[in-house]
Design goal:
- The protein is of the alpha/beta class and 536 residues long.
- The chain contains 17 helices and 15 strands.
- The chain has a six-stranded antiparallel β-sheet with strand order 2-1-4-5-6-7, with helices on one face. The chain has a six-stranded mixed β-sheet with strand order 8-12-13-3-14-15. A three-stranded antiparallel β-sheet has the order 9-10-11.
- A hairpin with a 2-residue loop joins β4 and β5.
Length: 536
């Protein structure tokens, strides 16, 4: 229930702190006094759009705060509007997003203003009322969930199919490119090695001449003698090293030089022999280089490593269609499961709605006849619809005030009839546990006399099990409340200001009398007011 409301700098309200009791709370006041302003402030807590124009008195901010008793304990909801147009929302002094504040407030208060009677003509609103009455809110939530998940799955499947189509259309090209690169048997660092070899083979004649000249420095007949001489020199130096230790190192160096010379000669001789017939090998090397250069130009690569990466991408593209086919199959199976679950939800909802619709209509008719629509007929018509988030049913509330066949309520009900139908529906919903505080803004508009009295009795009965705040202009309704507040307007320093105060005793009698007779309160009106209040 709404325990208290605190308002600062909201339009004509400079400062207001009001505590609300349990039961039926009545709010009255003269036209223009500010009843709608009070409702607008509550609307800010419910998530209505912030407008810096609501900030009154030249202030920089407007603050609206509500304290609520809930099963989880006291909850405090606050909304702050800044003259820049920004707003901030708080729950229990913690900053939250506006949607979070709105979601919580929707579970705590249900504001029924005059324009919300138009909801009665909304098919989705009618369906939600029937679902609530039938006790299938949970099934309806599951239906919405499965429909949402199926829609998301379908979008994913369509996207995967589009990718698969593109992959298939490009498959032959990708496969040809991959096979060409795969056949090239690319190896890292191959290009540098081939370029060095090609350089050597292309200059083999000059290389052969230079190597031959080098080999001529060593005549084959000289080598055995040179080798023997170096060996003999090493032995002599090593003998000397017995007496001069430093000579031992020279002996080792001389042996290393002999071995190095021997290796150099063998290497030069081998290179000279290989450079004698370069033609066949040069042709193969240049063919290989030509292939690599062509592939690199074709794919815009600067190295064999980049070319290998391109080959890998084509490999993935070729095999990717298989993965996409598997993904499409998985999504198709998932979508089929979700559609079956959604179809089961639709069936369960239809059965629950079909069973509840006659009872729902009968109860509404009972309330309407209590409200002096003696010949009223009310029917809930269910027809098949394309399966969607709300199931596979379309609902229509049919109404007739003269007992004839009902037609769509949007086409036949007058303002007073709409008010009575809406009150009947709210009265039915009020019987369910967990209903939020109901706030009625002149739901009794368009009725008077004994009908108004009976509407007051219905609202009073609702207030016996929950908190109901009713803004009304009818004395028959105002007299039913357990607490009565009056909104008034005053003028000070050239400004209009709205305020609200609880009235009791004689003050309440005079307010009821004002509702009966207008600005001029007569003794008869006072007597009638006391009668309505049960004080005679």
């Amino acid at each position: 229930m709404l325990r208290s409301l605190h308002i600062r700098n909201y339009i004509l309200i400079d400062s207001l702190d009001i505590k609300f009791p349990e039961g039926l709370v009545i709010i009255t006041g003269q036209t223009g006094a500010g009843k709608s302003i009070l409702l607008g402030a509550l609307g800010l807590l419910a998530g209505d759009k912030a407008d810096p124009g609501v900030i009154g008195g030249g202030a920089e901010t407007c603050v609206v705060e509500g304290e609520f008793d809930t099963p989880e304990g006291l909850r405090i909801i606050r909304r702050v509007i800044y003259n820049s147009g920004r707003s901030r929302s708080f729950i229990d002094d913690c900053p939250v997003q506006l949607q979070e504040l709105s979601d919580l407030c929707s579970r705590l208060i249900d504001i029924h203003s005059q324009h919300r009677s138009l909801l009665l003509t909304d098919k989705q609103f009618q369906l939600s009322l029937l679902d609530h009455y039938a006790g299938c809110d949970g099934a309806a939530a599951e239906c919405r969930k499965h429909h949402r998940e199926a829609a998301a799955c379908l979008r994913a499947l369509e996207d995967a199919r589009a990718k698969l189509d593109r992959s298939r259309s490009e498959h032959d090209y990708n496969d040809a490119q991959f096979r060409e690169l795969e056949a090239a048997a690319l190896r890292e660092d191959e290009l540098e090695s081939l370029e060095e070899e090609q350089q050597a083979l292309a200059n083999s004649e000059e290389i052969r001449e230079r190597l031959s000249a080098a080999l001529q420095c060593w005549q084959p007949s000289d080598l055995p003698g040179m080798d023997a001489s170096l060996r003999e020199a090493r032995k002599s130096i090593e003998h000397a090293g017995k007496y001069v230790p430093a000579m031992q190192e020279l002996g080792s160096r001389l042996e290393s030089a002999r071995i190095e010379l021997e290796d150099i000669f063998a290497t030069v001789e081998d290179a000279a022999s290989r450079s004698e017939n370069p033609g066949e090998r040069l042709e193969k090397v240049e063919e290989r280089l030509s292939l690599l250069y062509r592939l690199m130009r074709k794919h815009g690569c600067r190295s064999i490593e980049e070319l290998m990466q391109v080959r890998e991408r084509f490999s993935v593209a070729v095999s990717g269609s298989e993965e996409l086919e598997e993904e499409c199959l998985r999504l198709e199976n998932e979508l089929e499961g979700l559609r079956k679950a959604h179809a089961a939800d639709c069936k369960a909802l239809h059965e629950a709605r079909s069973a509840a619709a006659p009872r729902f209509a009968s109860e509404v008719e009972g309330y309407l006849r209590f409200l002096e629509l003696d010949r009223a007929s009310f029917e809930v018509e269910l027809t098949g619809a394309e399966p969607g988030a709300s199931g596979s049913d379309s609902v229509s509330f049919k109404f007739a005030s003269d007992g004839r066949a009902g037609v769509d309520v949007a086409k036949c009900a007058s303002g007073g009839e709409i008010s009575r139908i809406m009150l009947s529906l709210k009265a039915m919903m009020a019987r369910f546990e967990g209903m939020p505080t109901l706030i009625f803004d002149e739901i009794d508009s368009g009725v008077s006399g004994s009908v108004a009295d009976k509407m007051g009795s219905m609202i009073c009965e609702m207030g016996s099990s929950m908190q109901v705040i009713s803004i009304t202009h009818l004395p028959q309704v105002a007299a039913k409340g357990s607490a009565h507040f009056v909104v008034s307007k005053s003028f000070d320093d050239g400004r209009s200001r709205s305020g609200i105060a609880r009235v009791e005793g004689e003050d309440r009698v005079r307010e009821i009398a004002r509702l009966l007779s207008g600005a001029s309160i007569t003794p008869e009106a006072l007597a009638n007011a006391r009668s309505l209040l049960g004080e005679l």
